[in-house]
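Recap from last week: sequence in, structure out.
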Amino acid sequence: MARFSILSLSLTLLFVWCLLAEKGLCRPSSNEEEYDDDYYQNDDDTDYEGEDKDDDEYSGPPPTITSHPLNLEVHPGETVVLPCDTVNLTRMLEVFSLIWKTDSRILFLDKIQQAPIDTRITYNSHNNSLVITNVNASDSGHYICSYSVLPKSVEVMHTLNVFAPAKIKSIEPAGGIFDKGSQLTLKCNVTGYPRPEITWKKLGRHRVPDTTILSTNDAIVFDSIERFDSGTYECIARNDQGPEVSSTVNIRVHYVPEIDVEEEIVTSGEDYEAVLKCVVHAEPKARVKWFKDDQPIPEMNHTRIYQMENKFFYHIDQTKTTDFGKYVCSATNSKGTTNSKVIELTGRPSTPKFIRANLGDSGKSLHVEWDIISYAPISEYKLLYKPANPDAKWHGISPPVEDAVEGNVYKLKYHLSDLPAGDFLVTLRARNAYGWTSQAKPHPFTIEPDHEATAETSKMAEEHNTQNGGSRPRITSILTIISLSAFFL
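Predicted structure tokens:
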């Protein structure tokens, strides 16, 4: 009986199951897995869309900072509070990021202090202010409180100035070598408050500063540096918070050698010494060689070459006629080679040196004087003068030659007389056995015209006569009246 009951129950359950399968309410296990995946996938999409929608639905007003920008001046050691008062703070404020930052780094991000941690700086969550205790000069700068709100951030910027003495952090560049013609800017990086005054000077020999102020800006700009720009420059900074400070920088300019020749014509004579000189400016230092008539000079017993600082000499102890000629000194360094102007060694007299010129008492003559050096006897002079007119011709005079007055120095003194009025030029040449000198630089002089009454002077004379002589008729009349009165009495 019991077995029959169990069998009947089993058949009944099997029958029900088959009915359900036939109506599609019963699926194989594989189909059940696919159904479950689709079901949960749809659930996920629906749930997340709902959540995103909730987050984006905040449409209230953004936070607004009511604090005004501050410009603070404080002394070291004080405490500073930088406000960031905000309105429209809601429960949704976490949507916006609050940031405290300086010019160079972020201090707080969402109320969390960022590295490096400075325990002197704290954030007050009650009113969003930034507190700095025991301030020092390095705290000077801009402080910004901001909320990142699209499409733009909301912020307030405060400026903090901490009183501090002048300090030079650096000079850029810190010296070095620069090619001639290049551009160079020397910048003096200075800190301190109030802002220090800056002065640039160039140091002379023995590091003595030149009194000339090159600039009062923080930088000196060389558009094209020259060789004379080499040297040591000093930046001086000062304010009212402490003593002035200074720092120096050394600049070297490299360039192709430059040569100066003081005498292009050197006069000497047989058995006399002669010295030829070149002044060479070069950086890096240059090697100097001498050439005569475009050929290297061989070593000779009566000559020597030597150097004194940047002056280079070719010294001839006893000049020979074969030594006369044209010389050149050549200087070479890593930047290039330069040849000097031609230096001529000659036996001709030196170019006459003008000494003085004086007008005569009459005003129509001129007394002139020159010095000439000649190691051979001077045989002739040629004194030339003409009106100061480019088209005028020279008039020549041959003054007599006198013996040298001292060693090889000759003097010519001459008196030009009966000259007409006008502006003139006068010059001189001299000759010896080796030839004529170069013409001396013309000297200007003026012969004034005879004193004659001009329209102006005539007018003045007339006024003078009127003032002085004009009273005479009145005096004469008075005397005449007195005389007649006496006669009739």
